[in-house]
């Protein structure tokens, strides 16, 4: 990308000259020397020629700086009769961009000889013509200019005429034949001699023609024009066959000698191609449209001849008026189609010139841009302009421009032309990526396997190409913080977030990481967003019992038999490490010795009596409390409670102090009795013929054993010393204060079922 400065432009014009018809490769000048540059600088800056028109007539040798002729040049073909003949071009240098105007003048060489269009010129002169009478001759044509053009005429020696060379206003020369002495048709009816047209070249060139003078009988009057000079103006846009002027001549003679015929006298081939005259009326009309830019003035010699052969001449000057018939031309000298969006104001985008072939106001031009765009036009020299940036550019807002340059002349009506230049902006990494959210929240399930997609991050960059390619990465956490970056990964291309390992909600309920999005520019730009990952709890933890302790087989509680309905027996306490509804616990009585006696609070876990305790209720009650959470699927735990119904707390402690093992004997006896019944039953089934004997024997044995084991104890009272000496400490556990002492007496008729302590009540 080439950033250009307008101040570096130069508008001086270098002028050179070279003769026409030079050989190809002919030396013109050394451009490098004139520009003050070396040949190496000329080559390094890629010097080149930009012609004003479409044809390139010269070429530049970048190694030597020589300007040479590209092809043989014919001045007459390029410029015609115009002088000077100039070939204009520009020398364009890069790094930095500079433009130099130059023009080469083609000097004329004498490569054309004068030529008469008619090799034989016939003049009819009456014998009555007096000496010193002048007769206009056809002009010779020489396309050369200056001294190389036709300079004078001469005639061969004769006794009647000499020639006189005249000059027109446009510089061209013509010949007039001057009569030296009177003619006598009877002596010599025809006079012949040669005329020579000579140019001023070195060596001079010439052309000849034969003049035949036919001597006529006397015709007393010659035609006479009403004006010797007719001046008219014609618009260049006049249509073909339009009337230019009407010439008029009269002749006093009568008959055929008074009949006048008009003709355009041969003095220019161009006049014959452009104008025509009516021989009877003298109307001069256009044979083709006029072009002010080619010829501005015409001089026409009109001859009026009568029937007797006499003639006279007049001049018609035709001034061509310029019309605004040429629109301006916009010529692009240099154009940069791509431009960096970081280009500063006044960066040159294109160099161009405006040309209008019209003249005056019709040829004066102005140049402007259409539309609102960040460009403007700067005038470098006459009709030379530069298209430059007027403000900073932003590719993200407008990626490309179609800049329309409009050139308008000052004619009436004004003509204009437009030229569109395409400019595409190249991207610069001037925009950082932008996340669609500042904080992304994603959810992953507890114990979810590694590699599972959690979601996708998205960041956009308004730049283009590599500058817009966004790559994602996790920002390393500060030292000493939770290594949350090891829990998830982010795909660098797509931004997909995946889990790296299963997580435990109870250890990591949520974590945050910082994600960076960087583009591919140089240097890269980046942005950051916070990724918050919430671990969704799964019901992977069962409730844990705090009371009663899960280590003991069963927890014992004492309930007095006078306990009313709603009496608090115990409270089951449990916790769940999960969260939410996975940790919401509910309590229910799963199993009980007497289901109607107790109830459990659904949410409190309190075990209370559902009704008042009665004497019919069993002394020992076994309760199983189910603790269940609300997860899916639900998890649960059970707590076992052993409840003893007692009449008085003091009886229970006295019995436990005297013989703690005695309370267990009735339970053991009952278990042994049940075993005996089972054995007896099996024996009955096994042997039918011994059924009666075995039943009687077993019955006797069972009764004897029961009486031996349940023999009534002798009445006894326990004193204070007996209770304390048993060694059971009452201060460690239980519900009674160790500061009290109780007396308990049992009669000899008390049975084993009337008072019993369960083993787990006291250690």
TrEMBL record:
It is found in: Cell membrane. InterPro entries: Cadherin-like_dom, Cadherin-like_sf, Cadherin_C, Cadherin_CS, Cadherin_N, Protocadherin/Cadherin-CA. This is PCDBE protein. PROSITE patterns: CADHERIN_1, CADHERIN_2. Residues 10-116, 117-225, 226-330, 331-435, 436-545, 559-662 form the Cadherin domain. Potential calcium-dependent cell-adhesion protein. May be involved in the establishment and maintenance of specific neuronal connections in the brain. The chain crosses the membrane at residues 677-701. GO terms for cellular component: plasma membrane. It comes from the Eukaryota. GO terms for biological process: homophilic cell adhesion via plasma membrane adhesion molecules. It is a single-pass type I membrane protein. Keywords: Calcium, Cell adhesion, Cell membrane, Glycoprotein, Membrane, Repeat, Signal, Transmembrane, Transmembrane helix. GO terms for molecular function: calcium ion binding. It holds the Pfam family Cadherin.
